Amino acid sequence: LPSTKMPYDNYGWWERENADCISKMDAKLDQMHLVQLAMSMLCFCQLVFMTSRFPKQAWEAIYLPAAECVLYAMAASGNGYLRLANGRLLPWARMASWLATCPVMLNQINTISPLKLYGINLNNVQIALSVVRVVNGVS
Fold first, then answer.
1. Tens of pLDDT along 5-46?
2. Where does 77-121 have alpha helices with state H?
3. Which residues of 89-107 are buried (b: 16+ CB within 10 A; e: fewer)?
4. Residues 125, 108: Cα–Cα separation, whole Å
5. What pLDDT does residue 28 have?
6. How crowded is residue 74: how many other Cβ atoms within 10 Å of its Cβ?
7. pTM for this one?
8. Percent of the chain with pLDDT over 90
9. Separation between Cα atoms, residue 102 and residue 7, nearest integer Å
10. 70 or 6: which carries more pLDDT confidence?
């Protein structure tokens, strides 16, 4: 019988057939760095605005733009990526941003509608599962 195995059944087939894909990933993305720098500046402006309203604002409104400002600036400078042994880029700053901001945002959302099931606070479970998701690379 002829083999019915599809090429995508073999992990890494696309990379082997397109050996130059890693070198194409190294292209300078000046526009993307410019967008990341603009987002960093926008977060900084938001940070300044929220800080000026501090007594009326919760700490989350200051913490979130501060974290995003730093991490966007790191990504714009090129320090937000690690090159792995196989040549791929790992955007660690993006994952650090998610780990630093998602639990805080989820906690803010969860204060609107607390949810309990059999005495277990499901809001805290949701935050914990979000962290596990990000750590395992699921975005």
1. 555 566 677 777 777 766 666 555 667 778 888 888 999 999
2. 92-110
3. eeeebbbbbbebbebeebe
4. 14
5. 57
6. 18
7. 0.64
8. 8
9. 38
10. 70
How many helices and strands (H and E) does the chain possess?
6, 4
Q: Which residue reads 């073999």 in tokens?
A: 10
Contacts of 134 (CB under 8 A, 6+ apart): 95, 98, 99, 102
137 Rama sector, left if φ>0, alpha if ψ -120 to 50, beta otherwise: left
Place of tokens 């607390």: 114
CB 81 within 8 A of CB 92: yes
Residues whose CB falls within 8 Å of the CB of residue 22, separated by 6 or more in sequence, listed in order: 15, 87, 88
What are the DSSP calls for 28-47, one per residue? --HHHHHHHHHHHHHHHHHH
Q: Output the pLDDT for position 66.
A: 92
Tokens of 87: 């040549």
Only one residue has tokens 């194409």, namely 24
